[in-house]
Amino acid sequence: MSRKHDVLALWLIVPLSGCSNAPSIPVLGAYFPDWLFCILAGMLLAFLLQILLARSGHAAWLQPSVLTYPVLTALLAMSTWLLLFQN
Q1: What is the pLDDT along the chain (87 residues), one digit of tens a residue?
Q2: Which residues have C-beta within 8 Å of that of residue 11, sequence separation ≥ 6?
Q3: What is the dihedral of CA 10, 12, 18, 23, to 10 degrees?
Q4: Could you tell me if 53 and 62 are in contact, meaning their C-beta atoms sit under 8 angstroms apart?
Q5: What is the number of other CB atoms lying within 10 angstroms of the CB of residue 46?
Q6: Using CA atoms, how far apart are residues 39 and 76, in angstroms rounded to an integer?
Q7: Cα dist from 27 to 24, 30, 33, 41, 47, whole Å
Q8: What is the pLDDT of residue 72?
Q9: Contacts from 19-22 at CB under 8 Å and sequence distance 24+?
Q10: What 3 state SS string does the chain have?
Q11: What is the pLDDT at residue 19?
């Protein structure tokens, strides 16, 4: 009976092991989560990449743009998080 309770306790505790305070950045006295800045950076980088590709004539590489730009934004946002906020 004790073994069964140990396994049950383990299954209940393991999902809670990742809980911690959300990392945040103070901006003018208010705290914002770091993922918000990563999303903004991803959007800005995707926009700049779109401008560069359009000027160079290679914008057709990222077609259909309805699918590729949201995915590119997510990729750039996650890359920003890994570069700047990974401990």
Answers
A1: 577 777 777 777 776 666 666 667 777 777 777 888 889 999 999 999 989 988 998 888 878 888 988 999 999 999 998 898 776
A2: none
A3: -150
A4: yes
A5: 21
A6: 8
A7: 9, 5, 10, 16, 24
A8: 92
A9: none
A10: CHHHHHHHHHHHHHHHHHCCCCCEEEECCEEEEHHHHHHHHHHHHHHHHHHHHHHHCCHHHHCCHHHHHHHHHHHHHHHHHHHHCCC
A11: 61
Candidates 45, 47, 34; CA nearest to 82 is 34
| Contacts with 61 (C-beta within 8 Å, 6 or more apart), sequence order | 53
> Which two three-digit tokens encode residue 27?
């901006």
